[in-house]
Amino acid sequence: MSSASHAPITPLQRLRSIFSGSVGNLVEWYDWYAYAAFSLYFSKVFFPESDETAGLMNTAAIFAVGFLMRPLGGWLFGRYADRHGRKAALMLSVLMMCAGSLMIALTPGYASIGIAAPALLLLARLLQGLSVGGEYGTSATYLSEMATREHRGFWSSFQYVTLVMGHLLALAVLIALQQVFLTTQQLESWGWRIPFVIGALAAATALYLRRNMDETDAYARQRASDPQQARGEGTLRELMRHPRAVLTVIGLTMGGTLAFYTYTTYMHKFLVNSAGIEKSTASLINASTLFVYMLLQPLGGALSDRIGRRPLLIGFGVLGTLLTVPILTRLQQVDTPMAAFWLIMLALVIVTGYTSINAVVKAELFPVRIRALGVGLPYALTVAIFGGTADYVALWFKKIGHESGFYWYVTACIGCSLLVYVSMRDTRRHSRIED
Fold first, then answer.
1. b/e string for 306-340 if b means 16 or more Cβ within 10 A?
2. For the chain, first and last CA: distance in Å?
3. 132: exposed, middle or buried (C-beta count within 10 Å: 0-12, 13-18, 19+)?
4. How far, in whole angstroms, is CA 142 from its chain's centroid?
5. Chain centroid, CA 416 distance in Å
6. pLDDT tens by residue, 286-332
7. pLDDT tens digit sequence for 206-243
8. Calpha distance 14→150 (Å, rounded)
9. Best label site of 144, 160, 233, 284, fewest CB within 10 Å?
């Protein structure tokens, strides 16, 4: 196969492929968050009813196991995407998520099949964890390679747009079923299956869309230039030939992912338990800030296309280091919902300096033959260690009576990432996408 045999991608093909990749990412994150949103209703179905708290804890433990599968997914799908193409890996990822959601929707309860019920729930969650773990690196690679150099930051930012939108859609389905369509008894009996049926159908639609995507020029050119290189693609040995890039991914992710999970998933608990805000009001604040935050991502990505990636990362690092403790301290003492909204929005504007461009920065660090694995695996490991433990660490500090210790922990992690931002080159000017 010669390099000439791969026709250049037209602007229409590029736009269609970016849309299909982004829709698939949205569906992946909707399915992921639907489990957390509806676990309160289906925990009794999969576990014995003798102890409600134990059932919830078992359901949460399965959620955590799914989270821990993400590094394995980052490795498996990164390797697959570097060897067999970005499109193939993205199709497999959404197919696996579809299977996981369908299993949860159709599995009978503990009363019908006994221990097989939680076992099948665990299997479904393992599939979803692998899928989400593989989706990030492959999706970040695909969007970054598919976009043109001039607008790469803008288009790659839609990865976090669809991530947050998936979270919001899961919340919207929950609120609609709670407030409009079903009673609590119906939700606990059978209604909790509806969001997983929706997720499976949406995943099947995303699979169809991804089936019609184009492979990226970068991957097609690399494969066409030397088909024999495939043996070295996507291997850990090859990845270890880029230690600086791997360490950069870990360092730039550490503070950013902790800040992201602090002000998004943990914030609802914080507003209720620490600020004393009523649960429904806290939910409204959380949803409102997430919606505005979602809209900020393309603005940050577009700005990075003009001034570079590094200034945004340094801005996040400096402001996050200086303002995390004041923002969280003031939030703990907040007296009105509007004040809480604006404080969280200030924090999320700062975090946008990281989230809007983190995908493209990581993709620009690696050559094409190892890019999906280089983006996915170090990121997934770092998220599992710092992002996945954010709630636990925050609640542990609160339990021992030193809640402000968590504020300083977040600050320290952002400070460590700031050192990486200051020392790294601007990937917009030194991108390896076209290597």
1. eebbbbbbbbbbbbbbebbeebbeebbebeebeeb
2. 19
3. buried
4. 15
5. 22
6. 889 999 999 999 999 999 999 999 999 999 999 999 999 999 999 99
7. 888 888 888 777 777 777 766 555 555 667 888 888 89
8. 14
9. 284
